[in-house]
Amino acid sequence: MESILLYDTTLRDGTQGEKITFTVKDKLRIARKLDDLGIHFIEGGWPGSNNKDYEFFESLKNENFQNSRITAFGSTHRAGVSADKDKNLKAIIECGASVATIFGKTWDLHVKKILRINPEDNLNMIRDSVKHLKQNGLEVHYDAEHFFDGYKDNSQYAIKTLAAAIEGGADFIVFCDTNGGSLPHEVETIVHEVVKHFHGPDLIVQQENPTRFGIHTHNDSGLAVANSVAAVRAGVVMVQGTINGYGERCGNADLTTIIPILKLKMGYPCLSDENLAKLRKVSLFVSETANLAPLNSRPFVGKSAFTHKAGMHVNAIMKDPRAYEHMNAELVGNRRRVLVSDMSGKSNIAYKAKELGITLGDNGVDNGRIVSEIKRLEQEGYQFDVADGTFQIMVEKLAKQFKPSFDLDSFRVTIEKNKNRPCYSHATIKISVNGEVKEITAAEGDGPVSALDNALRKALNKVYAGILDPVHLVDFRVRVIDGREGTGARVRVLIESRDKDSIWSTIGVSEDIIEASWQALADSFQYKLAKIAKKKQPK
Fold first, then answer.
1. Residue 462: per-residue pLDDT
2. Are 40 and 5 within 8 A, CB to CB?
């Protein structure tokens, strides 16, 4: 079976998503990760459009990629300017990339109403631009912008635009669902018709090396991945997308979903088994670099992708994982998770204890007692299915296997407000380590929890130097459990923390928001320090 080529446009199309901005250094770090993953093409940006992309391509001249080819993006030459005089095409040629991807207008609506040029002139712009890049030694991918909308409106003209690119020598024609409104059956039918049109017995353009086809979809109808799969079924051999589906509006096709589907479900050897197992880490790395919280429900690589909560399901997967899982999570670098809540049965606790390395039974703590304790605490407002860190600490305490990395002696938080500045907070904290060492530190923060966080880090760094530096807050949520008590109501605080390799959640519940925040914050650091301590223990 022919391999499907993977084309990543996170560094260009992905940056058009809201709240996503990458520095040149960010783009280089992501490009290295994509190369290590085995992506075939990495679209670096538009060297003729802005200084950042120009600097990125300059930086690439000192890089040595093992698996990926860097692609420069741009458009056909402008109307009224010849290809050899167009500054954007010139920038692509001079940037050092071996592959050029240019887009052109396929939909006659854009030709007539947006560009307002003669349809024949548009065909010449496509043909001449591709030809000029080929004459300068580049592999050329032609992105047929708005192809499916154009084909449905005027198929004859849409075909002519593709023929013009092929006549210019395009190595790839990429069908673009730019507005993201096409449906899978439409994509499969149209791609099949067009591929047959150019590669069938009645060739309209004779080629020594026939042009190959690719697909580029957007997710405005929630069908970007499905449309990409449909196009592969119809004959394309390249799939474009972004890591985590980042992109303009509703995003692009998500490569973290497409890649496992192609390899594991459809049998296309697009990545090695070794590289496929890196997929979750790459997903987390890109979300971290983009400063966006990972989507737990993301297929294959999301935290919840192989997560089970109902006791009946857990009982079944302990007997045979295929009962409630469509594949082995480890193939994409993920893992099975079992949640605990007031819906849990003894099977959940048995599985979770084994997963955490906690021995139950010999010390008198049985699964039933833990289930009862969970149900009692959840009546008070705890939610252990969203707080894996706190759950682990709680079970270890019940099993008398918890060894705290520190103990709180006391803390004090003050908040000051004057007319010349917003509120600011100051925290003083006193902790003990191993029952002996006492550390007293103070720190300021933007709020009381921030001040506590800073003070606790400062104290712990005196004992656990540098260990907590990679740890930072991803999310902080406060929920009033029952509002009938007004400002005296019980609140639940959920903190999500992460380092470069993992994400964990901790929870606190109290009538006092500072107390609830402290519980969640302390558990977060206890969880991280305990994890490091276990790694250092001899096996």
1. 86
2. yes
Per the domain annotation, does 258 fall within a domain?
Answer: yes
Q: Are residues 384 and 436 in the same domain?
A: no
Do 330 and 366 belong to one domain? yes
Angle at the Cα of 431 from the Cα atoms of 425 and 434, rounded to 5 degrees: 160
Let me know if residue 301 belongs to a domain: no
Tell me the residue length of the chain.
Answer: 539
pLDDT tens digits along 517-526: 999 999 999 9
Q: 271, 291, 324 — which closes off a domain? A: 271
Note whether 435 and 323 are same-domain residues.
no
Buried (b) or exposed (e) across 447-483, using 16+ Cβ within 10 A? bbbbbbbbbbbebbeeebeebbeebeebebeeeeeee
Tell me how far the alpha carbon of residue 411 is from its chain's centroid.
Answer: 38
The pTM is what?
Answer: 0.73
CA gap 465, 471 in Å, rounded: 13
C-alpha of 286 from chain center: 6
In the chain, how many domains are there?
A: 3
Counting other chains too, the contacts that 179-182 makes at CB distance below 8 Å and 24 or more residues apart are 179/146, 179/149, 179/218, 179/220, 180/217, 180/218, 180/219, 180/220, 180/221, 180/223, 180/224, 180/249, 180/250, 181/149, 181/220, 181/221, 182/148, 182/149, 182/217, 182/221, 182/223, 182/227
Give pLDDT, residue 514: 92
Q: Are residues 23 and 142 in the same domain?
A: yes
Mean pLDDT for back-to-back runs of 10 residues, the chain (539 residues): 91 94 94 97 90 92 93 94 94 95 94 90 96 97 97 96 96 97 97 88 56 96 98 97 97 98 96 96 91 90 84 74 89 83 63 70 62 79 81 84 90 87 88 83 90 92 86 85 65 88 89 92 92 70
Residue-number span of the structural domain to which 21 is assigned: 5-271
Same domain, 54 and 200: yes
Closest of 483, 4, 447, 66 to residue 253, by C-alpha: 4
Give the sheet arrangement for strand 472-480, strand by strand: 472-480, 491-498, 503-510
Strand-by-strand arrangement of the 437-445 sheet: 407-418, 421-433, 437-445
- CA 193, 196, 199, 203 dihedral sign is negative
91 within domain boundaries: yes
Residue 494 falls inside a structural domain: no
Do 444 and 424 meet the contact criterion of CB atoms below 8 Å apart? yes
Q: Which residue, 426, 444, 463, sits at the end of a domain?
A: 463
Strand 491-498 vs strand 407-418: parallel, antiparallel, or unpaired? unpaired
Q: Do 382 and 425 fall into the same domain?
A: no
Q: Is the dihedral of CA 42, 43, 48, 52 positive or negative?
A: negative
Whole-Å CA distances, 331 to 47, 272, 280, 326:
37, 11, 10, 12
Give the largest Cα separation in the chain, rounded. 86
CATH code of the domain covering residue 159: 3.20.20.70
Closest CA to 278 of 260, 296, 293, 297: 260
Same domain for 73 and 199: yes
Contact 323, 316 (CB under 8 A): yes
204 with 170, same domain: the answer is: yes
